[in-house]
Design a protein that fits this description.
Strand order of the largest sheet: 3-2-1-7-8-9
Helix content: 25-40%
Bound molecules: ligand BJW
Shape: elongated
Oligomer: single chain
Number of strands: 9
Number of domains: 2
Mean pLDDT: 96
Strand content: 15-25%
CATH topology of the largest domain: Rossmann fold
Structural class: alpha/beta
Distance between the termini: 23 Å
């Protein structure tokens, strides 16, 4: 991709007063975390993530579902943020230093944005690192990584199965996360959508919503998505390569 491809989106980023970034699993791919729709490997190769990430699967087979999530909890804890996460943390610092506002909305449950230095990202789909009682919703603390839960499903002090604090298909997103998202989207003049297949709602609708509000939009993804035809600029490639380049171009010393 030549420098010319970055010129317009980089200028838009530098001039934006209110920036929203929406991330998906692709941003963590180069940390070694498989994307949600990647084929699963090893023991989990025969399972479909879309079938496991549901309240129905947990009710039917809590042992299987909690084993899968604990496998992912320990996998995420063993991974490090990559250049894409670090670039987004820098983007926040640069925009805020210029007096602008910056909001990071993530569909990821891996906690890597916080570990990379992003301030208070909105975790739309929760976190695999925190767990709660499935009956009372009170937090239940998992063993520190790399220790797995001793039993599956883990049982909360209230005597009910514990579950990861993530949002499954058919469940409502956390109210405060939605409120913060819509408040940021309403006033935003630039939205970046990074590493998401744009098929899971409500996050998949954010690009259309912002485009309708007159914001400019940038998609960073190696592949087309159902939202690609709606974006102002599509930057095709891996986020760990594209984001550092975009930011270097936008915020290089004048
Ligand atoms: C790279 C890369 C690199 C690769 N660099 N990029 C409207 C229309 C139709 C359906 C619905 C609708 N509204 C709601 C629904 C139903 C449903 C839904 O959207 N279904 C669709 C599948 C059709 N939505 C819901 O159920 C939501 N709930 C809801 O709306 O509730 C309403 C309600 C209100 C009141 C009461 C009750 C209910 C909840 C959705 C929750 C989604 N949860 C999951 C699981 C979380 C836990 C877990 O991780 O296990 O979240 S599903 C899964 O998808 C996960 C992800 O966050 C999410 C998005 O996936 P993502 O991040 O985009 O990953 P991938 O794998 O799909 O894509 C990776 C991308 O990266 C690809 O594009 C690659 O090309 C790219 N990539 N390498 C950059 N290096």
């Amino acid at each position: 991709m030549d420098d010319q491809t970055f010129a317009q989106p980089a200028t838009a980023l530098r001039d934006a007063r209110s920036v929203v970034v929406l991330t998906g699993a692709g941003v963590s791919a180069e940390s070694g975390i498989p994307t949600f729709r990647d084929t699963m490997e090893g023991l989990w190769a025969s399972f479909d993530p879309q079938q496991l990430a549901t309240p129905e699967a947990f009710a039917r087979d809590p042992e299987l579902v909690t084993r899968w999530y604990d496998h992912r909890r320990l996998g995420c804890a063993a991974c490090e943020p990559n250049a894409g996460h670090l670039a987004l943390a820098r983007m926040e610092r640069e925009i805020c230093a210029l007096g602008g506002s910056f909001t990071l909305l993530t569909q990821n449950v891996d906690g890597l944005h916080t570990r990379a230095g992003s301030t208070d990202p909105v975790e739309l789909h929760g976190s695999v690192m925190t767990w709660r009682c499935s009956q009372t919703n009170r937090p239940v603390t998992p063993p520190p990584p790399p220790e797995p839960w001793p039993d599956f499903p883990p049982i909360s002090p209230a005597g009910a199965p514990a579950r990861p604090d993530v949002v499954w298909f058919g469940e409502a997103l956390p109210e405060t996360a939605l409120e913060r998202s819509f408040a940021a989207l309403e006033s935003c003049d630039l939205l970046l959508s990074v590493g998401t297949s744009s098929v899971v709602y409500p996050a998949a609708g954010f690009i259309e919503l912002d485009a309708a509000n007159g914001a400019r939009t940038i998609e960073v993804n190696p592949q087309d998505t159902p939202m690609s035809s709606n974006v102002t600029w599509a930057l095709r490639g891996k986020s760990a390569q594209i984001l550092p380049r975009l930011i270097a171009e936008a915020f290089r010393a004048q």
